Amino acid sequence: MPLFERSPKGMQLTRYRIEFERNAVNLRAAYEDTLCKMAELHSAELAKIRIGATPATEPLVNRTFLALLKRRPALRLDLNVQLSDALMQALLQGEIDLAVAPMPVKLPEDLAAVRLLRESIEIVCRSGHPLMALEKPATPEQLSDYTWILPGQSVSARQQIDAHFERHGVDEPIVQVQSNYSSPVGVFSLIANTDMLGICSTQHRPVAEQYRLQAVKASRADWPREIACPVRKIGPLSPLTSTFKEQLLQESARIETKPKRAKFT
């Protein structure tokens, strides 16, 4: 198939060459478009961070993401919200690159953790609950008169509450609803409309206040805990994940330096 042909006016393109050139232009455009799309996908992957959080620490992760988003508008967050034990496994298996969770009693050997902040867990009840009429702090016996909404026994907060009852020779609390508190709105709604007792972390306090929940005054029933940022020891973090970690430390410092608020009113 000739691409050129002679004519009285000189060499001219044949219809084969014209069709070939048209398709060649289309192929080049498609090739360049494919390269652009591949570059965009690569850039998007580089802009993605894989973070794990517990229900109690999710507000801190969200706060950090929003702060960083102002400087990195293309930032993408792959957020995995689970309980602490599951997060540690996800971290070890490479499913996430960084976790924000209460410091485990025993940190796996392949992980290293940086302390972020110290928060407390309080017992909460609805406004007008009979316990709020007590003149003295509620005893474990009085707390045991009511049913509870609590996480499973593998969660550190639940373990602290069970230990509190055990120290005073009182049976473990009766759990009417077991919840991992993944949705504090749902949990606090239940507490606000029943006589059930529940727990509230420092970071979930603003949500609890929206439901007019109150902190129960109970002797030695204010349990502190350390929130940490575990990562794998082997392998460096990506530059963007490292930046997120730095922002996480800054946001944690801001929370700790805020004036301490009084208990719920």
Automatic annotation (TrEMBL):
Domain (HTH lysR-type) ranges: 1-14
Short name of any one Pfam family annotated for the protein: LysR_substrate
Keywords: DNA-binding, Plasmid, Transcription, Transcription regulation
SUPFAM superfamilies in the record: Periplasmic binding protein-like II
GO cellular component: cytosol
InterPro entries with a match to the protein in the record: HTH-type_LysR_regulators, LysR_HTH_N, LysR_subst-bd
Molecular-function GO terms, alphabetical: DNA binding; DNA-binding transcription factor activity
Gene3D superfamilies associated with the record: 3.40.190.290
Domain of life: Bacteria
Record-given protein name: HTH lysR-type domain-containing protein
Organism per entry: Paraburkholderia aromaticivorans
